[in-house]
Amino acid sequence: MVRFSPLVLVFLLLVISSSYEAKVVEVNVICKQTRNPSFCSSLLNSKPGGADLVSLAQYTIDVVHSNVTNTITLIKSLIAQSANDSKASAHYKQCLEFFSSDEGALSSVEDTEERLKAGDYDGVNLGAAAVSTYVDDCVSGEGPSDPPYPDRSLLPKYADVIDQVVQIILIISNLLLHN
Ligand SMILES: *[C@@H]1O[C@H](CO)[C@@H](O)[C@H](O)[C@H]1NC(C)=O
Ligand SMILES: *[C@@H]1O[C@H](CO)[C@@H](O)[C@H](O)[C@H]1NC(C)=O
């Protein structure tokens, strides 16, 4: 039987506990990098429980998931209301595709969740960036041939919240990659 001296045991315990130590950062370190630090800190501080980077990533991805789901519900009701306005109708139908679970924001959110579970923080970063691209394509159009629709509904506001939460996920995943 192998016997460790108490000193060796203490040393081993220290090595083991430091390798399991969660990556913790101050909320402020994340939020000062965002466009809207007060939005960011009130969101992150509203998270119950611990505040290590992985659980903050999980939390913010959950928030984006529910925001995207709520936005899809909004878009569906806007499509129903714009039956007699072909321009509006075309815009909201296009947005529904950009938000969809086939190849849109919702599918990218689900992908981001999978990547986080796998510990693939690069994938988290790419997935979150894709969410933002889809959302921006809905609001701003895809390019010069697809000018922005002058949307007075709540949709641009919902999209702005999603962009802000996605920005937080991007910062957290960068911290996870480089810490
Ligand atoms: C998005 O999530 C935030 C945080 O949970 C919430 O305050 C906000 O109302 C949500 N917005 C939508 C459109 O779901
Ligand atoms: C569309 O127009 C029809 C016929 O004018 C009308 O009955 C219907 O209520 C309108 N629908 C909406 C969503 O405005």
Write the layout of secondary structure elements.
Elements: H1 6-20, H2 27-31, H3 37-45, H4 53-81, H5 86-98, H6 105-117, H7 121-140, H8 155-178
This protein binds 2-acetamido-2-deoxy-beta-D-glucopyranose (2 copies).
Q: Any overview of this molecule?
A:
With 179 residues, the protein is an all-alpha fold. It is 72% helix and 0% strand. It contains 8 helices and no strands. It has helices spanning 6-20, 27-31, 37-45, 53-81, 86-98, 105-117, 121-140, 155-178. Helix 4 (53-81) runs antiparallel to helix 5 and helix 6 (105-117) packs antiparallel against helix 7 (121-140). The chain is elongated and about 80 Å long. The two termini are 39 Å apart. Residues 15-20 have low confidence and may be disordered.
Number of contiguous helices: 8
Mean of residue pLDDT values: 90
What is the CA–CA distance across the termini?
39 Å
Structural class: mainly alpha
Rg from C-alpha positions?
A: 21 Å
List keywords for this structure.
179 residues; mainly alpha; 8 helices
In summary, what is this structure?
This protein is an all-alpha fold and 179 residues long. The chain is 72% helix and 0% strand. The two termini are 39 Å apart.
